[in-house]
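Would you be willing to look carefully at the protein I have copied below?

:::
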Amino acid sequence: MTTTAIAIALVATACSPAGSGGSASSSCEEEYTIGFSHPASEASAVKVVKEAAVAHAKELGCVTVLLDNTSGMNLETQRSTLESWVTQKVDAIVVLPVDPAALENLREKAQGQGTKWLTYVAGNPEEDGTVGFDNQSAGEDMAAYLEQWIAEKHPEGDISAAVTTATPLPSIQPRVLPAIDLLEKAGIDVVSQQDCAAQDCGLQLAEDALRAHPDLRVFIGLNDDAALGALRAFQNAKIDLDETFIAGFDGAEEALVSLQDKTGYTASSAIPSVELGASVVDNALAAITGDGDAGKQTPMFLVTPADSDEIAELLKAYTTFGG
């Protein structure tokens, strides 16, 4: 989109619908279609990011955002959706691939016909841009907070820990690797380390770990959903939550409410979902037009029960977009 076209779009929002299956206004000098595929659509934080992207496109005008409903990291569903977008020759695709190698042929076909290919969190040397956040610094912040907690609560290291991972997505692993390193250096056994990004598996992993290791007091989820499942397991086991460290990433609504109400969750490394959703559109437009930063990252920040103002601000996104 040219600068002039964007200026026209900004004043034409009233007649420029956007969203899954939507269409841009006939008054637009240029119209753009962006596909956004995230393979964990069931996650509340992801729902907010998607709806925020659609809302931002509507605000800009002349931009349509198509959404993928893939859930449970299902590769075949994601591939089918991406194939349809490539066939439609959309202007840009933003994707967090379940299996990057399995989608390389689609990337090559898309870029060969002029569709820009941006990755969401997962980097690709052939990408035209990226949308994401700094998992490394988020993981380091979480590890630093855990280190303080261990020094205060269990300086002798007389507990065990569990961590969930996502080994098919190595770009996300830096969220939890610093905590794993810290636990090992502190002499705290990591008794469970398995892939999990949903409440059901988080609950099951925590229940299994608690049965085998009654001294389990630390559970760090790859995301908040996994950690929230673990929180239920600790609650069901009637463990004193003042003596546990249960934390995750993303700033999911239920996690933020638990932090706000002080019902057992310890911390979340939160992503400003509205800002991230806007960057899905802005970064894609930058890749399409060559005007702007196609790799702008959204900062994450740690929130604990002490951060009431920040938590209230993050929860507004769920009120607005219904995650």
